[in-house]
Amino acid sequence: MPLVENESRHCKMKESNTAITQISLMKQKLHAAKLALEEINTDRNDKLKTLIQFITHLSLACKGQNLELDNKLAKLRHHMHDFEQIDEALPELVDIERLLKSQYNHTMTRLEDSRNGLNRVIRQIQRINSAPDKLKKEITYFKQELGKPFHTVWEYIPKVEKLIFFYEEILKHEFADADNYEILPHHVQLAKELAAKIAEIEFRKDQRDQILVIKEVLLGDISLNNLLESYQSILSLLLENIAREKTASQDFLFALNDALTIVRDVVNNTHNNNQRCEQLKGQLNKEINLRVNNADELVVDAYDLSQLKIQLTVQLSSLRDSLSRKEALEQREQTILRKSIESMRKELNSMSQEANSYKEKLFEHQKLNLLDPLTQLANRTALEDRMEQEYRNHVRFKTPLWIAITDIDHFKNINDNFGHSTGDKTLQVIAMALKNSLRDSEFVARYGGEEFVLLLPDVTDEHISQLLNRVREKIKNIPFKFKNQRITVTLSIGAAQVMENETLEEAFERADAALYQAKNNGRDRVVIDI
């Protein structure tokens, strides 16, 4: 017997050691599997990041060409941030592939249309007989190259650049002796008109020095070449400003579109999750009600208390399990909802910031569009708005309204004798003096050149002459000094009251006629149309 017991213990120890060895091996395998899984997850995440970067670069490359494609790529980027949602992104890939093919076909069609357009332009250039022979040969070779279709935009752009080069060479040849052309009075008048126009336009701060240089050139001894260059420079600056405004508007709209797309996706996902949760909760409620009904039946049909106790324990355990699952489902639903709300809050905040920034820019531009850039007074557009407003008040409340037009006497002599920059400073000083002479309810605007318009509500017939003469005397007493020479600058003023059943235009014409009378009667005076 002792021998048998020893053998039995020996066998058990051997089996125990074998089991320990197997468990150790399983732990090693499990640890290796975890490491391998972590490597797979890391590799998967790295590849996912690379894929997201690729989609981002693709979005930037395609941005603005197709709005539907922009939306699809934005939605794809959103799905790609969560590996679990990649399956949901697969249908988007099919749509994106379709849109990319469609965009490619559209681009190729446009390229072909552009090639035909270049052919038409080059045929027109070939009709210019005065072009140098060498240039004519280059144009002929260029036309032959246009016979081949374009496959990419990058083949089209060099052709456009070459076409511009042909234009430049022809223009150089045509205007090589432009400085020798006779400058006619009409050219001088055009230069002065351009100088006057650019003084009314608000340019960016970094452009103002260049504008001042152009203005000095236009008001000096102008040549035909300088006049053409000035027109070209002004057009280039205006087109640049228009392009900047367009880009800013497009950037805002693209950002707004991306944000709305993300918010829409979050709302859709939240709605889908809520539907799934409602279905699961409905199933759990049915299961809970079933357990409660079963418990009721057991109580009704019970005869053995011990058996009832056992059965109720089973039912209550199932009921607790169902309630726990329902609670976990509700917590998960709340977590998803909080994340969705937070995501939408971030996107809406970002969208709000973009909108506020864009609104501020629009407000600044609107403000600039209503100001005269030289005098910083209201311009004609602002004057027309204020005139309509004051006229409505005049009609509604039956209050008096006066229109006064002022003109600086002999202003042309200031420009001719002391230069246009001195004339500009004179306008600025007088504009500020006019503004400071009026009450807050009264209004002054630069009408054009050296003319200003005053709107004077709630002024009686007895006080209008005193008010306007006080303004005239204030300007006359300003101690102007040009090139160490004291100069007195005076105003002529014509005024008219808006009469009952009279339009603003009719009252304005009477005020203008009164100004003309003030000029003819010797200037430096106020004439009121009664």
Could you characterize what this model shows?
The chain has a five-stranded mixed beta sheet, with helices on both faces. Strands 4-5 form a two-stranded antiparallel ribbon. β4 (480-482) and β5 (485-487) form a beta hairpin. α2 (67-80) packs across α8 and α7 (205-219) runs antiparallel to α8. The longest helix has 78 residues, at 224-301. The model has no long low-confidence stretch (mean pLDDT 79). 15% of the residues are buried. It has four domains: 1-49; 63-176, no CATH class; 251-362; 380-529, Reverse transcriptase/Diguanylate cyclase domain (Alpha-Beta Plaits), CATH 3.30.70. Helix content is 75%, strand content 7%. It has 14 helices and seven strands. With 530 residues, it is an alpha+beta fold.
